[in-house]
# Entry
Amino acid sequence: MSAAATKVLHHIVEARAAIHAGEPDLAERKLHQALALIDYIKAVRPGTRVADHIWVAVKHLEYQEPHEVALDLIPIEISLADMEDVILAQRSKQHLLDIRNHIGRDDADATRKALEQLRGSLAQTEIDLPLTSTEQHINKAFALLTEGKTTEAEQALKEAEAGVQFVSLGKSIPLARARRSLWQAMENYSAGNHEAVERDLNQALKWLEWINVGTDTKTGREAQRLHTEINELLDREKHKTSGTETELGGFWHRTIGLIEHQVETLYHAWRDQQSDNHLYKQLVDAKLHLFYAEHELFDSGDVKGAKQELIETAGYLREAAATTSGEQKSRLEALEKEVTALGSLAGSPDAVMRSRYDTALADLRLMVRKN
# Structure
């Protein structure tokens, strides 16, 4: 994937050179090649394979009984296993468990809804936003070239370069590598290999130390907080205290949220809007803390931690609502009330609360994408 993204960048640079040389036809050919490679990147993303299998399962439900669709879960589960260190695999597995339960009850509507929720949980990875931005800028350049506006087309391609440069970094970015180290620590802890756990955690710490350089302030602060907590866990691990496995899962979960947050912040900066759009910043920060709350609510049982994350979320939503009006303001106020309600239910998680949480996070994700 990273190699393909680098080739996309190569074609964009060639297209810009062709525009400067007065060869718009050559520029268009290079952009066609860039778009073909973007289609390839989309096709090989781990989430794409799972989404294809989900589509098959949903189609089968149109004319088969739920228990007959059970076989469709096998390729979905295999593909999810390949994604363990890539995206939101744990949440996806929860949806998969729900699907199995609904199939066991032969409940077609609930099975279909759970499949759609599974597909929704895979909707965003660390490459989606910049990849979409790159494609939009290339298509814009095409239109401008057709109109003979070569200067504007060249500017659109300059903006496209920023997005694809991030995609080409792939899993080499520090946060992604820290996440991988934490995943390995979880695996080694389960295997009882405490020496390897210590080594993995120290590696994660090294990657987190890189994050303050050239990153946004919020991500930097959260990375430092994570760094401190991992150090504290390392000290406790030397004394073989309990609770390590749950904490490791929480750390891994937070790196996913941080990666999304960093990408969304970078994406917005590429479009030269960050300094002017206070609403977007508040939405992104709110989503980070709502995502953090998931582990405390449904995995670790840390009621105090969950309530604190939800209070942070509600605060950012309140600030966001203050910057807008009309329907969007009403939606933000309603979401703030729902998040506050979730805080009052912390400590008593059940299927209804899980559904309310998932809906709130999905609504917030949608708002981020629309702003």
Summary: The chain has four domains: 2-44+126-168, 46-121, 173-270, 277-371. Residues 124-129, 168-172 have pLDDT under 50 and may be disordered. The radius of gyration is 22 Å.
